[in-house]
Structure formats: C-alpha cells, structure tokens
Amino acid sequence: MADYIPTPVNWVRKQVELYESSGGTQGTTLMDTGMPCILVTHTGNKSGAVRKTPLMRVKVDEGYVLVGSLGGAPKNPVWVHNLRANNEVDIRDATEVFKMRAREVTDDAERERYWVAGVEAYPPYADYKAKTSRKIPVFIAELV
C-alpha cells in the first residue's frame, strides 16, 4: 500500500486528522460552518501516494457528488486531476467508509442535476461558479 502524504494546507490537514482519529465522530463539518463534509481518500496522479480531501457532503441516492470548486479559484483543485487519473476512492461519511468509483459527469442534464444538488447542500457553490471562468468539474462517486 502506498504511503499517505498529508496536505501542506494546515486547516485541511487538521480536519483530516480529527475526522480520522475520531473514527468519524468529530471533524464531520466544515470548519465553523456546521455544514457536513465527507472525507475522500484517493491516489495522487503523480506521486501515487494516498491523499485525503474533505469535501462537502452532497448525497444523491446512493452516490456522493464531488464538486471541484476550489472556492472559485481559476484552476482546478489537485484532487480533480487525481480522480481523472485514478477513479477508485474511499468515501468516509462520518463513521461509515465506502469503496467507490468516481466518474466525471459530462452529460449536461446529468451534470445540472448534480450541480443543483451541490448548491442545495452548500449554497456558496453558486458564488464560486460566478467567481471563475472555468467550468467547475462535477463528479459522482458510486458504489463499486
């Protein structure tokens, strides 16, 4: 098994550590928003290392919508490149962990459905979309 390389982003690293060390009973909301998040474990596309990223919890049916917003930054978050290279992920939703496969949603109607679900779960996504000229990637993680 590959080594885990924590993110250099301090608050993200602390969130991941709290989420995991508590077995999913703490760290399950994004900082001070009180809004639920999940933990996505994926493989680095260049390093091959294990990476862990907290994302907003957007549950649709049996899947999870993963929105590559990066707060409306002009570039995609690194995890988007990782999922495009290796779509096998583990999703930790509080105390449960699911083996899943992430697929980038390219069909316009399907993408719109998942985007709307994302904005309903986390309204700032709409602001992030307005801040950037890029098309924010949307993935659906589905049970393997």
Blueprint of the fold:
Elements: H1 10-21, E1 37-43, E2 50-56, E3 59-60, E4 63-67, H2 78-85, E5 88-93, E6 96-104, H3 108-121, H4 124-131, E7 138-143
Antiparallel strand pairs: 1-2, 1-5, 3-4, 4-7, 5-6, 6-7
The overall pLDDT, averaged over residues, is 96
Shape: globular
CATH superfamily: Electron Transport, Fmn-binding Protein, Chain A
What is the percent of helical residues? 25-40%
Which percent band covers the strand fraction? 25-35%
Instruction: Give me the secondary-structure category.
Output: alpha+beta
Strand order of the largest sheet: 2-1-5-6-7-4-3
CATH class wording: Mainly Beta
What would you note in describing this structure?
This protein has one domain: Electron Transport, Fmn-binding Protein, Chain A (Pnp Oxidase, Chain A). It has 144 residues and is α+β, with helices and mostly antiparallel strands. Strands 2-1-5-6-7-4-3 form a seven-stranded antiparallel beta sheet, sandwiched between helices. The two termini are 19 Å apart. Helices cover 29% and strands 29% of the residues.
